[in-house]
From TrEMBL:
PANTHER family, sorted: BIFUNCTIONAL TH2 PROTEIN (PTHR43198), SI:CH1073-67J19.1-RELATED (PTHR43198:SF2)
Protein name (Swiss-Prot/TrEMBL): Thiaminase-2/PQQC domain-containing protein
GO cellular component, one term: cytosol
InterPro entries linked to this entry: Thiaminase-2/PQQC (IPR004305), Thiamine_Salvage_TenA (IPR050967)
Positions of the Thiaminase-2/PQQC domain: 117-206
Pfam families for this protein: TENA_THI-4
Length: 528
């Protein structure tokens, strides 16, 4: 491990500043890291693979040095390196020397197993770098104009999007898998922890680079609570949740309903047996699916039309009649009769939300500097279920939904109908904004997943679609709505702004952003 000690005194780790030398500094440490990994590798195949990767890093160093020269940076001029770069390189060096948090030092690495373990740990700290650069290279390459050779970072992007670098990233991951085969479950947990820590440090490294112009992301970076009001709206079912709330309520009803052979006392509210209730629910669910598909087909224009919000509103009026019939059918069937309010609340507290959903709202709500307003708009039959789902994460959000009527904590089966259709959601959206004073400018974000959210998604300054609802895209596309993946959409928005002023977000543009999950929403609105 003498090379680790020596590395801390190398000229390459002396402070050299700016982004070019920051990248060079990092890749120099990575080169030495691969030397150490090669020493620790236990078999010839692993040693050969590590040696090949080290040669690839040597090529990266040559490229980084050429960037330094091309961008007119004096590599001999000492400057202060930002703390994110130092933290990352220190982490790599510490891991390579066996200094892993919660793990006893490896000593002299006397056995092949000890050497393999240290090699695996160090590779776990390195793999995120290769994968992230590979990912960024591909993403940025897709956004470049192939005919334009003037882009200042074209060589950088070409290098990291190349097939050879993609192969190196995959080779690094394969090697990590190979070295991890003999590790215990506890040691694999350490591998996972090192990987996540390294990825966070990598992201921090990029975020620490200075920006010379206003940027569209993160959205809250330019937010001024004294002048602007950030209002975030979200649907609930399948936007925040993994399972639709109607299925949750039906399950509670079926599980708590009496068996067919049990005689109910006169003091109890009369309920269907669990078997009858299940059959009734299956019938209602089947009717809903069939009629919904028919309703969607009936509102579709024969050919794609230009985007017109009013025309879309008119078409979606048919959904209002449909949803009202459905809700009346549910009430008349009495499938929700006899539910205990405490059972509903417990189900809400245990409800599984989409990955990253709770943490996003926690950071939004708990950041007092943002002073953000959060509203949940939902068709859910029971607002108490939604409130319990969020309260389990310590969140108190504004819920706008239908409400089950309870008599001494027992549901009567009746529903107070408040939000039944896309038009009802749009009306609630407008009413909420009207209730705000005019002392600040509203910036609205709506997050949804279905046709029921379409009007609000379009009315908001920024509409974000979660998931891949076929009916939403089908209806939206026929009515002239365009669906744009968030990342390339933000790049386009950045180009439009010219970097000279803050972007102008405006609703009713006919364009919606699409994301695969809440991590993208978090990154766009809050950053990391």
């Amino acid at each position: 491990m003498k090379k680790v000690v020596a590395c801390t005194n190398l000229d390459v780790l002396s402070v050299k500043g700016n982004e070019a030398t920051g990248f060079s500094m990092k890749w120099n440490v990575i080169f030495i890291w691969f030397e150490l990994a090669e020493e620790c590798a236990d078999d010839d195949e692993a040693k050969l693979a590590t040696s090949e990767l080290r040669k690839g890093v040597l090529e990266e160093l040559k490229m980084q040095n050429s960037f330094v020269e091309e961008w007119g940076t004096d590599p001999g001029k000492e400057r202060t390196v930002n703390s994110a770069t130092v933290k990352y390189t220190d982490f790599l060096l510490a891991t390579a020397s066996g200094k892993v948090e919660g793990v006893k030092g490896p000593g002299k690495l006397a056995t092949p197993f000890e050497r393999t373990k240290v090699a695996a740990y160090t590779l776990a700290a390195m793999t995120p770098c290769m994968r992230l650069y590979s990912f960024l290279g591909k993403e940025l390459q897709a956004l470049l104009d192939p005919e334009d050779d003037r882009h200042p970072y074209k060589k950088w992007i070409d290098s990291y999007s190349s097939e050879s670098f993609q192969a190196s990233a995959l080779q690094t991951e394969d090697l990590l898998d190979k070295l991890s085969v003999s590790l215990t479950s506890e040691e694999l947990d350490i591998i996972e922890k090192l990987y996540h820590q390294a990825m966070k440090l990598e992201i921090d490294f990029f975020l620490a680079q200075p920006l010379a112009q206003p940027t569209v992301a993160p959205l809250t970076k330019g937010h001024n609570p004294a002048e602007d009001r950030l209002v975030i709206f979200s649907d609930f079912d399948l936007t925040c949740t993994v399972v639709d709330s109607s299925a949750i309520l039906a399950e509670i009803a079926i599980v708590t309903a009496p068996k067919s052979d049990v005689v109910q006392s006169e003091a109890q509210i009369a309920r269907m047996s669990s078997a009858d209730l299940k059959n009734t629910w299956d019938l209602l669910s089947g009717q809903y699916t069939e009629e919904y598909e028919q309703c969607i087909e009936s509102i579709m224009p024969s050919k794609r039309v230009e985007f017109n919000y009013e025309a879309l509103c008119k078409a979606l009026e048919l959904l209002l009649d449909f949803e009202r019939r459905v809700n009346s059918r549910v009430i008349e069937s009495e499938v929700l009769k006899g539910l205990n309010l405490e059972d509903v609340k417990r189900a809400g507290e245990r409800l599984i939300l989409q990955d990253g959903c709770t943490s996003f709202f926690q950071k939004i709500v708990n950041n007092k500097n943002l002073n953000t307003n959060v509203h949940v708009l939902s068709y859910c039959w029971c607002g108490d279920l939604i409130r319990s789902a969020f309260s389990s994460g310590g969140l108190d959000v504004n819920v706008h939904a239908n409400e089950l009527i309870f008599d001494e904590s027992i549901s009567t089966g009746e529903i107070v109908k408040k939000v039944e259709s896309p038009l009802d959601k749009a009306q609630a959206f407008n009413d909420i904004l009207k209730n705000y004073s005019n002392d600040r400018k509203n910036l609205t974000v709506y997050i949804g997943d279905s046709v029921g959210d379409l009007l609000c998604l379009l009315k908001a300054d920024i509409g974000i679609v979660v998931g891949s609802s076929a009916s939403l895209r089908k209806v939206g596309s026929q009515f002239g709505v365009s669906f744009v993946p968030l990342f390339p959409g933000l790049v386009r928005k950045q180009k439009e702004s010219g970097g000279e002023s803050s972007p102008n977000w405006k609703g009713l543009s006919g364009m919606l952003y699409t994301v695969s999950g809440w991590a993208e929403i978090h990154a766009f609105i809050l950053g990391w």
